[in-house]
Amino acid sequence: MAGFNVVDTKNGSQSPQNETSSEHHAQPITVQKAPPKKSVHIQKPDISKPPGKNHIYVREAEGKVETTRRVLGFALMALFVVLPWLTWNGEQAILFNIMEQRFRIFGMTLWPQDFTILAWIFMISAFALFLVTTLFGRVWCGFTCPQTTWTFIFMWFERKIEGGRHQRMKLDERPMDADKFLRKFAKHAIWIVVALLTAMTFVGYFTDIRALFTDFWLLNSSAWATGSVLFFTFATYGNAGWMREVMCTHMCPYARFQSAMFDKDTYIVAYNEERGEPRGPRKRKVDPASIGKGDCIDCNLCVQVCPTGIDIRNGLQYECINCGACVDACNDVMDKMGYPKQLISFTTQRRLEGGQTKVFRLKSVGYGTALIVLSALLVLDIILRIPLEFDVIRDRNTLYRVNAEGWVENVYTLRISNKSQEPQTFTISARGIEDIQWYGPHQIELAPESTESMPITLAVDPYFMDIPMKEVTFEIIADSDERISRRVKSNFIYR
To answer: Which stretches are transmembrane (predicted)?
Structure first.
């Protein structure tokens, strides 16, 4: 990562300092005073984990950043829960029906032929993530990632049932008794209920959610729906309840490649080492300069509130998810000590070095330009999209035949798909050969989001077939809107 000293706290090591070598000559034995002892900074053990434990006991944080994260998380959670229950024209507004290969998004239905629109959406999402990461670091992880949101929800229930950080540590250290059993049982029971409701809501994006919530409890849901609900229940319970920071530090690829998008102007959660060091405890309201200390009182609250258990004072680390919990904790301590806030803050390395943060730079402008171009292509694709598919298939068993009147006949199968969410009546015609005759219906009515096949026959007087094969054009037009039309070319064969 350019400009950053990323520390791997799991396998961190310090490089030995350069030592100057000196030659030793034989000298008479003399008594010398011992050199003065150098001050050694002893790193305190990780107090977020009790000895012998591999579990992080996160302390609750309060402050502006935490309030912002909770409000945003609640809004996104509410959006996730409400969206599949919305209706549009009497149907579920958002439904990704994989079995029938159609995605319904409010007034638009996407079929396999429309996957270019989904491709645009995925590319836009990727470049938006790149742009946000370049400008503001891992705010996606700290404020909007589902893993983070559900983890904090599970942690909230854990605190309400088992108590604060120290209470939970003492509860886990004592032997099993009735009180501990009931608290643990209640916590895991609520976790499973939340995970089950989450899984049912998620699966409701892919099947009729109203039928799912009824049939699942009546044991009438399909094997696919039941299996999906149970799988995502287990995944949510395991990820948010047990794995937590392991997902962020070991399994999420975003933490690994984020460094490629960081630079000196990227906003990160950072500790002002120049202002905070040397750290050390002192009484409240004491001027740190008078005792030769920095503003950091070494309370370790920034470590206790971190959901991944890192010490932000060691520098930028890939485990940091930019949730800002340490910012709130440190600001609260600084306020109580009578010191200026923002010892730990959302800032940039350039600003810490005394420079001015640059918002418009090559990387951010490049991602922003790509995002604008892709968004324009998506809008253009949606505007030019025609909710109609029309295919013409020639009968391959009989290339042609001659009827009783001596006319040449070719048989075709017309496959028509109404991709809109409203019933449509279509008129079909053919041209390209003089005096062509049509045998079959000229109109067809299709229900919303339906496909039908219609066999027809074309007949031509051999007099007009001066060559063995001629091109014929089929045209289909919606009676309600002439802009909904398609033209497909095929061949009429004779001899």
So the answer is: 71-88, 117-137, 189-206, 218-237, 365-388
